[in-house]
Amino acid sequence: MNLSKEVCEPGLEEFLLEFLSDRKKEFLSLKGQHIADVQIMAREIGHKWQGFSRPYGFMELEKLGHLLCDASKECSQSSFEEILEETQNYLNLKEETL
To answer: Is pLDDT above 90 for 4?
Structure first.
């Protein structure tokens, strides 16, 4: 995963740690859950990630948001778990670069 192209828009840098912390909380609310139990919440979180990750330089999270929405619509547990694993790896990598 190439994070070098993920650049925060000017003026948002001071909010990056808070942005990351909020996304980690959202991730943790989904981790270990069954998609059928959190389907609506997963869709809402995925939609949120799609909507405002890019300005903060979290382009991959925007893509994961799309996938999360799709998995929640399909109620696919295997896709859901795979997306959560990718999200965890991504958020950990982003944290190392901040």
So the answer is: no
Opening angle at CA 54, ends 2 and 34, nearest 5: 85
Q: Are 47 and 65 in contact (CB under 8 A)?
A: yes
- 3-state secondary structure at position 41: helix
φ/ψ bin of 33: left (φ > 0), alpha (ψ from -120 to 50), beta (otherwise):
beta
pTM of the model: 0.94
Q: Which residue has the higher pLDDT, 1 or 57?
A: 57
Q: What is the DSSP letter of 79?
A: H
Contact between 21 and 96 under an 8 Å Cβ cutoff? The reply is no
b (16+ CB within 10 A) / e for 43-77: bebbeebbeebeebbbebbbbbbebbbebbeeeee
Q: What is the pLDDT of residues 83-98, one digit of tens each?
A: 999 999 999 999 999 8
